[in-house]
Amino acid sequence: MEQVILTAKAGRRLGLDAQACFSGALLWPFFYPWPQRTPGLVEEGFAELGRRWRPILDACDEQGIDLCFELHPGEDLHDGVTFERFLDAVGGHPRANILYDPSHMVLQHLDYLAFIDHYHPRIRMFHVKDAEFRMKREIRCLWRLSKLGRQARPLPPRWGDGQIDFKAVFSKLAQYDFSGWAVLEWECALKDAQVGAAEGARFIRDHIIPVTAHAFDDFAGGSASMNDIRSDLGLAKT
Predict the structure, then answer these.
(1) Is residue 237 part of a domain?
(2) What's the rounded Cα separation, in Å, for the pair 189 and 146?
(3) Of 19, 38, 42, 195, which residue is most buried, by most CB within 10 angstroms?
């Protein structure tokens, strides 16, 4: 707890307003619903997360720092439902926010675009990382093989490398006025990282949308009185 709070203090001194984190994994060992979970186990797990994170969130609030949980398989906060349960546990704390990484959503078969529509008020950070999920003949666990051998794996954010529609992702983030950084995260097991860094920088640059300050047809607009409006509708003047 002390280290996370110190990170928030350091972030404030650097002029930052958000930092990334993981929730921890009290409940992840019980992810699969067999054998049956002890009644109340899930509820107590989220209550404990709330008790641990609430003082950290309060300290981040004092520093003006948003704490952004990366929703990630292996962590208790890994999708929208678990994030909402956590929000309930911390009383909807305004500093409890999301690091959006669509690659983790592809690997969990989540709708990563609809996620932005629903959770955009809480999205404060953004990892640009692609992913693929390929059906295979043999059954494999997501994470126990090397990255090259997995049926689900992260890939470089470049046209055609993976399954994420980044044009749609950047468009939606622009639509909702996302003001944070688009951060390249590198986890590819195949391509050289230096090559990927150069490609990724160009990729992000080419996808960022400078948002227009006015509608394209503003030139045709103008003010109108209520009588003008009613006349346009074919109604009597007021």
Answers:
(1) no
(2) 9
(3) 19
User: Strand 130-133 relative to strand 152-155: parallel, antiparallel, unpaired?
Assistant: antiparallel
Q: Is residue 238 in some structural domain?
A: no
Distance CA 140, CA 38 (A): 28
143 within a domain of the structure (yes/no): yes
Whether residue 153 contacts residue 147, with contact meaning beta carbons closer than 8 Å, is answered with yes
Contacts of 157 (CB under 8 A, 6+ apart): 128, 129, 130, 164, 166, 184, 200, 203, 204
In the numeric block, which tokens belong to residue 124?
A: 């404060």
Q: What is the CATH number of the domain that holds 98?
A: 3.20.20.150
Residue position matching structure tokens 């999920």: 133
The residues that bridge with 183 in the sheet, in sequence order, are 127
pLDDT in tens, the chain (238 residues): 999 999 999 999 999 999 999 999 999 999 888 889 999 999 999 999 999 999 999 999 999 999 999 999 999 999 999 999 999 999 999 999 999 999 999 989 999 999 999 999 999 999 999 988 876 665 555 555 555 555 566 777 765 578 999 999 999 999 999 999 999 999 887 889 999 899 999 999 999 999 888 777 777 677 889 999 999 999 987 7
- Residue 195 to residue 172: CA distance in whole angstroms: 28
Total tally of structural domains belonging to the chain: 1
Range of the domain at 15: 2-232
